[in-house]
Fold these 2 entries.
Entry 1:
Amino acid sequence: MNLEKKIKSGISEALKSQFGLEDQTETIQLQPTKKEFEGALTFVSFPYTSKTKKAPEQIGETIGKFLKDNLEEVADFNVVKGFLNLVISDKTWLSIFSNSVLSEDFAVLPSNGKRVMVEYSSPNTNKPLHLGHLRNNFLGYSVSEILKASGYDVVKANLINDRGIHICKSMLAYQLWGNGETPQSSGLKGDHLAGKYYVLFDKEYKKEIDVLKGQGVEEEEAKKQAPLMKQAQELLLKWEEGDKEIVALWEKMNGWVYDGFNATYKTIGVTFDKFYYESNTYLLGKNIVEEGLAKKVFFKKPDGSVWVDLTSDGLDEKLLLRGDGTSVYITQDLGTADLKFQEYKAEKSVYVVGNEQDYHFNVLKLILKKLGKSYADGVYHLSYGMVDLPSGKMKSREGTVVDADDLVKEMLETAEARTKELGKIEGFSEEDLQALYKKLGLGALKYFLLKVDPKKRMLFNPEESIEFQGHTGPFIQYTYARISAILRKAKQLEVDYNKETFSSLGNLHPSEREGIVLMTKFPEKIQEAARNYAPSEIAQYIFDLAKAYNHFYGEVAIFSEENKAALSFRIAFSFAVAKIINRGMQLLGIEVPEKM
RNA sequence: GGUCCCGUAGCUCAGCUGGAUAGAGCAACUGCCUUCUAAGCAGUAGGUCUUUGGUUCGAAUCCAAACGGGAUCACCA
């Protein structure tokens, strides 16, 4: 039985024997004791004043005394107003440390036999990835790792949006102005090359709109009338008809883009188990439309278009099939949801998609429910906020984006500069150095994007956002490297830790106690982060742990310690912290260096 | 206009299902490297938690309204 449960049942017993209350185990709440007070766990007695008809202080005193007398874990207590602070004996902490924290399978949670699919990244193939995509990729990867750690069987999926009007825009611009340029001839990464023509299209398209507006055409109309737009739409039609030349161009340009994406994915260290291509799935969903019509969940309008009425759920009427029988975004997504379930039978399906699509996913889930799909309840939209720049929103078309590849490159350069500045790279090979810069640069970037609650939008200031000091990835990596140095030295000196000697230890240093308390919380943190789909909770936790260790490091000497048991314990303590930091950072997709 | 999200220190952010004197980091200021890595540690200063009501023994947290910011309400994806 774990400590909290033991104390709770102790309190429940106290309430029963001292005040005659029935079993309260379920309702008793314990919270961590605030730093200013002595103790580790706090019981709040206010809620029991009416039941016991006693003053909060008196309840605290009575229960505190009972626990101290009856539980060996409780060494002492103090009462401040309605707060009963419990001091747990160091012996208890040491026993938890050696039996639980140090055990091989600590924080290794058993499989829960459930499968979850996490779809993330899902890029358009007409332009390179930018900072917003990085947040998406890092979130998706990290959430997958966290779900795995909490016992799920995870399938990471990437639905590539490889067809549609946006790709045709790039293709058209390339046809018109590309002069047969290739990634090889231009030296541009494939996705950047495609992006270049997307931007070019938009520039020329805007000119055409302006000309039309000058001729007195309304803006909305001008957008439709512009010749470039009409040509792009023609391309799309030809593509759908299977026009050989167009399909070949599409395949060629998409090929370039995939090469580019794969290079970026490899650099930033994200992976997928399954790729879906929209060109294969965009016709799906029509059978769902049939099904919905048969079930009378959907209805047909006179022009033949198919709709669903969601007004009773506070939403609008939603189109599912155009009058000409072609499908729209939501139709495809319905089809894909069904396909995913048929293929993987996952109980949960997580979509890592920006919060601008909140409405879309509300509709999607609602329709699946109305159709009586068993998997509807498992659909979860992990809706994350945008990354804003000081100048406002990022827009690919207008080129006001922070490009992912550029940013990563910059991060590695900064990592290199910082490292050289500090001059601690003696004994590193050139290869080691490059690997280190990558760990640090990406660590800083990933941590920066993951430490914030996914749901919230965040600000990225290129000038000053990503630091290497303070609440950052490199701070945590540094702590790990520091501990690694200690463990290396311990090995060299052949100081091993021996659990048996811990019991002969006297008192723990407060910083050691704090560290142990934090470490015991790791498994529940993983569960909580999985439940909330929130890597930020892991990020925050690992930061707190690293901070606690550095505090310990400053206060307590290790190798000059003469008491063998204390020395042994501190090595074990350091080892355990390093292990958790490493594991926690893995859950964020961040690598950790032995030296830096 | 309807719906949804957000508003905490100069800046960027924590604050779990309501609990004690609201926490970190950056920036500012003080100290600490001949002793295990100073990308660190210790400390000072900085807050009417947007505002106003309400519920409660207790509200940054829950409810309502106002103000401010954002997203969305496409036969685009």
Note: Chain A has a mean pLDDT of 92.
Entry 2:
Amino acid sequence: MGQQLTLDSFMVESRRKKRRTSRRTGKLKIAKKDLDLGIVEAKNTGPCYLLSVVYDGKKRKALVKLYDPQTHNIIFWHDNTGHLPYFLTDLPPDKVQEIDKIVNHPSFDHVEVVEKYDLLKDTKVHMTKIVMKEPRSVGTVREYVPKAWEAHIKYFNNYIYDMRLIPGMLYKIENGILKEVKVEIPKEIAKHVEKLFDVEDYEFKELVKEWLPLFQLPPPKLKRLALDIEVYTATRNRIPDPREAEEKIISVSLVGSDGLKRVLLLHRKDIEFGHKPLEYPENVEIEIFDSERQLIAEVFTVINSYPILLTFNGDNFDLPYLYYRAKRLGFNEKHIPIIIAEEGARLKKGIHIDLYRFFNNKAIQVYAFGGRYKEFTLDAIASALLGYSKVVIEAVASDLMLSELASYNFRDAQLTLNLTTFNDDLVMKLIILLMRISRLSMDELTRHAVSHWIKNMLYWIHRKNNYLIPLAEDIMAEKGEAVTEAVIKGKKYAGAIVVKPPAGVYFNVVVMDFASLYPSIIKKWNLSYETVNCSHSDCRSNVIPETKHWVCRRRKGITALITGLLRDFRVKIYKKAAKNKALGESERAWYDIVQQAMKVFINASYGVFGASTFPLYCPPAAESVTAIGRYAIKSTISKAQEIGLKVLYGDTDSLFLHNPPEDKIKELERWVEEELGLEIEVDKVYRYVAFSGRKKNYIGIYPDGSVDVKGLVGKKRNTPEFVKKAFYSVLEALGKVKSHEEFEKVKNLIREIVKESYNKLRNRELTLDELAFKVFLSKNVEEYVKTVPQHVRAAKMLKEVGFDVRKGDVIMFVKVRSKYGVKPVQLAKISEIDVNKYVENIESTFEQLLDALNIEFKEIMGISKLEAFF
DNA sequence: GCGGACTGCTTACCT
DNA sequence: ACAGGTAAGCAGTCCGCG
């Protein structure tokens, strides 16, 4: 055990307990308790939340990991139903029996005939089920039959489907048997839901009953531990390779949701503890270890005492480093609680969540957090979501005094934990809900993207209904390619329509919007991979506008059903419940998370069918959605004009109307509902809108003076800070404008601001940071083979002097007067700045604004080009 | 050998 | 590894120019 030092007693050197371990031999006696993972395998339990299903290779069984909300511990349950891995083929069983490589395979168990429903053919089929003893052999044996179905599904997911398990829901073990715990739905809620849905359709009614518990069952309070490690680095800007794990682990911070706060430091003879820095963490146990081995052993003990471990980039760094470092120091495999797998670092006992991977998920970033963070560093995400961030250090972690290292390291673990605790555990609750909807275990859900979630959800439903899960090649052969042509070169089919807006200022603009247009289309038009261009000849007359596709009249499409269900749940129940003041605050907050989780699935439901990597990829289904979307907005614009409304602009699902009378709005709403079966509603009202004349480019001012900026370069991330500042001060002035006459003041302001910026530039009164272009490096530097853009040029310069630059980094560079025209800020001097380039930048940024106000540079500055100042 | 016209690549945005 | 559409800046290429 490391010595515990509280804040007020960190007289380190003198008090440090010497722990002489047998360093010479490198062997260390590990206490018996270190071997014990503390795993509980009970015959009977109370209700527990299902967190994960994995395959236990030693026992050759599925292993279910449950979370006991009473003890906050993990409970293991091994399958005892005799479930085995398998796949399907259309080869008759006697033919399979003739294939020696299959029947003589050591893992072969037996074959049997099963009946399935083939949605592509809309008919029952008989398939041969080839059952194996061990999951990995499925990958081998599937090659011995001409055609294999359901052979690429991971065993643990197959297990979840076959047992109809729903991760995140309650189960209990009764006499050794895993049983679902029924969720009691209060009568008034059940009635309320039934009334709001008002369904006559039996299938839909049953679905509502089935899905309701997933949204009503309260989430568990999950006990968890955040971990962050610091490793010695000899050279600056080099990230140590975890597979080598050559350098010492010098500090490990552990922060628990139960209040645990520990920093385990490694004593190094040349590094002092030093003075307590400003950011020194209070109430933290600081322990100093002489032996790195003992430090790691202690970390492992703590990891095993928590059901859930949180890291930030632990899949690729912290956990592999701990693992390989432990091995290097002579740990026996069985004393290491970590498993290094292909898809990430897992724990033998609990669940490891790598928050870097979770927040990197585009659906999470965009739909769950509204794009509030734009970079995927702990610093950026914490700043955006928590409002505070990392401890600023002047040197490399290795060079810090121990007290500073502790502060720095502790903060990272604390931020990691707090990313899951803010807003009353929002992230953990969201994860649980997404698990329930997708039917994915916690470790899979947090590591995969939304297409994986949707795939898994649909596979689960296929299996439940005994539908054959189709092969991508069969969908393709049956349904074919897209028939429309995209506007953008290289895209597969046509997308949405954007109406070109007139340049200028328009007062009193009402924006109308189709309520979740694409999901509504999917529902209304019964779109799904199996219903578009179905096999029935009598459905061919049910044509999709703008295409030659048709859609099924006989059978309800599986995606239409599920997307529609989630959409209805969200719109009719949970969005309303989240705002219902009659409910308690925490209940409302939960319903808000429920509707957000649904939004993620609903919004991605169209896109996945147009993604070639999606296993149910179906271009005709995807292009049918956009085609109907184009038809809907076009016909609505026509109708609007017909009844005398002035349509200024529209993009995909929105209409900007100039001075619309209330009754005409109502009339349009009615027409859309009656003629198109869709919902259109007033989304927002602007006091005025300033269009620059470009598509996707305007400024909208609300009645209260707040401002919406869309697409203007002034708001773009890569615009230099000083230009942005100038731009935003003009926007502020625009917020105060109430009539056409008042734009005169704004013109004066623009003149002043532009002149001021110009003077600052000429006198070099700006810092390099303010002048920097910040551009995202989407690939590693070597991968830019077609062209070398400026930010890549700057990145190359950084690499040359030893910086670690890789994809995902944001490169900061300035424009200079030299051969390449750019330099990274780290290497540039203010004197070499190319002022002309910046003047051009100011000009083009303000040009969009001036276009909207219908003025020219000449008019405002008295000269045609700013450069004329020179 | 230089520069304008053009195309293609890249990023960041909008829905 | 959800989609397509738009704007902007720059890299690279082609071609004219006695």
Note: Residues 1-35 of chain A have pLDDT under 50 and may be disordered.
